[in-house]
Write a structure and sequence with these properties.
This is DUF4327 family protein. With 73 residues, the chain is mostly helical. The protein is 45% helix and 0% strand.
Length: 73
Amino acid sequence: MRQQVIHPMVKMQRQVHSLVESNILKPTDSLWKIAFLYGDEWPHWKKELLEFDFTMQDPVSAFLEVEAWDDED
């Protein structure tokens, strides 16, 4: 039986979704607000988001709408 590996962005997306559900973040908040929640890990996640063509001004809802994370070109 093969175990499926979950893309790291899916894990982050689930965490952010949980924060929205808990009313810690709003769907209209900018992605840069996540920096306050990720602390020392933020530079890594910011780099990942930028590589997927997000800007830090994009709303959290745009990040949550992504259905598939594909690293390949």
